[in-house]
Amino acid sequence: MTVVRVPGRVNLIGDHTDYHGGFALPMAIDRWCEIEAAPIDAPIGERVVRATSAQFDGTVTVPLDAPASVEVDPRTVEPAWGRFVVGAVAALQEAGVRVAGTDLAISSTVAAGAGLSSSSALAVALTLALGPDRRADVVARAELARDAEQRATGVGIGLMDQLTALAGRAGHALLIDFDTLTMEPVPLPDELAVLVVHSGQARSLAGSAYASRRADGEAVAAQLGLASLRDATIDQVARSPRARHVVRENERVLAAVDALRVGDLRRVGELMLASHASLRDDYEVSTPELDSLVNALMRSGAWGARLTGAGFGGCVVAIASVRDARDVLADATAAYGAATGITASGFVARSVDGALTRTGDIHTGDA
User: What is the domain extent for residue 26?
Assistant: First the structure.
């Protein structure tokens, strides 16, 4: 039996920049998707991948020897979590990987619909469990998992979540340059606590305006004759709120990295608040609940807070001193509940290494 363990992630700053060739600063967190994979001994023609989930009902069976004429669109599979299994098998087979008959037992502590990358953690774990080629580099692995996820959801996504799941490093955030697809670990100061708080408002990219937001930015880049908004200046995009967010957010990511390196955590907090305001006003992916939760965290003593992930619900990330973190969390969730009538839940996140097997680390690129 092989056991694959893949972390979720929280993004400290830099959202909706990855698919525009920009910068982001996520970290892998101590919540995992785990898959136990055992071989199924069956003759050619009868081989299958069979999967069950500890969190959700149903069993998904994917025939491996079916002719192309009977291939299934992953987006039509029920139960819905099984779409990722079908998508992973299809992505691996198209990439030339021979998928063996396998029993998969899936479990996860990455909250679904929270903006913590539960879907990408599952896609990474599936592609590693079904196609464990350690020779592949981390970018190729991330792209394969993204392919699997896009087949499952029909949503065009960036590479931030998959790269973080594979290349995360304990005690560090990960500065990712999505133009060059290079990664640099950034040490997190010992006095810094990262809080992750779920707003109680579930989020689904497939039912959100995510695709239209992405298209808006790509249209501006095309009008400017640029390959991506990574190459735009603030003067070029000053009148375009979507593109303006991307350009300014890239600047904020690099400024936050500089501030972390010198231990200026108050400055990091200011940049996070500016990021949230931009996501709320220019990119329009926040919600009243997320705004209320950010405000509650700040009033409770956080240094900075912002929505994390794509928005439209899910989680807020905040930073505070290690000494005050749990008090900030308790006070903020109580205040948020009183203001909204919604119960929020949160935890102090620990940064962890990327994808692991029971036998060791399966990082395949330089992080």
Answer: 2-185
